[in-house]
Specification:
Length: 185
């Protein structure tokens, strides 16, 4: 009699374990955890649109955008949050804003001596040390012509995303900071 009771308990425990494994595999294949499905929220769609704009101009960026430890990932998250109310994304403006926000996160922007406007609601051309053209009718926004963050407490690596500004950037001044890396051409 005890022997049947032990067999019954073992069978019951095995059935529970098998049920848990089956349930876990079903949950993991559920639509909410499948990254290949379309985004489900407006913010997710916006983030996907930003990624598409960035990767179409800068294909090498794909992996850093998925790595939560990178400045590029932080920049992407900030942009998706900051632009959540935008109805239209202008590719050239997304690219230049992404380059600047990547610079901010790559060089410990929260520790800068002056960072007025950075990561705020103001247009990036109003951020401290950023100089822009007059608004371009064709583009619908201003182009970044210069960045002057001399002697401002930057420390870190110059991000390669500054390459995204190569069509308009004339002047970049980062002297008297603790930055390394190369300036992209």
């Amino acid at each position: 009699r005890n022997r049947w009771w032990i067999i019954y308990v073992i069978f019951l425990v095995a059935a529970c374990i098998i049920g848990a494994v089956v349930a876990a595999s079903f949950f993991n294949s559920n639509q909410y955890s499948d990254p290949t499905l379309a985004p489900t929220t407006k913010r997710d769609r916006l983030e996907e649109d930003i990624v598409r704009i960035i990767t179409s101009s800068y294909p090498d960026i794909k992996n850093p955008l998925n790595d939560v430890s990178t400045p590029q990932y932080q920049a992407l998250q900030w942009m998706a949050d900051a632009r959540e109310g935008d109805n239209e994304l202008k590719a050239s403006q997304v690219l230049q804003q992404f380059a600047l926000v990547s610079l901010f996160y790559s060089t410990a922007g929260f520790d800068w001596l002056k960072s007025d406007g950075w990561l705020g609601s103001a247009n990036e051309c109003e951020w401290y040390g950023v100089f822009c053209s007059e608004p371009l009718v064709r583009e619908g926004h201003q182009k970044i012509l210069g960045i002057d963050l001399r002697h401002n407490g930057l420390h870190g690596i110059i991000p390669s995303e500054l390459l995204l500004l190569s069509n308009s950037l004339i002047s970049l001044s980062l002297s008297r900071n603790s930055v390394g890396g190369t300036i992209p051409e």
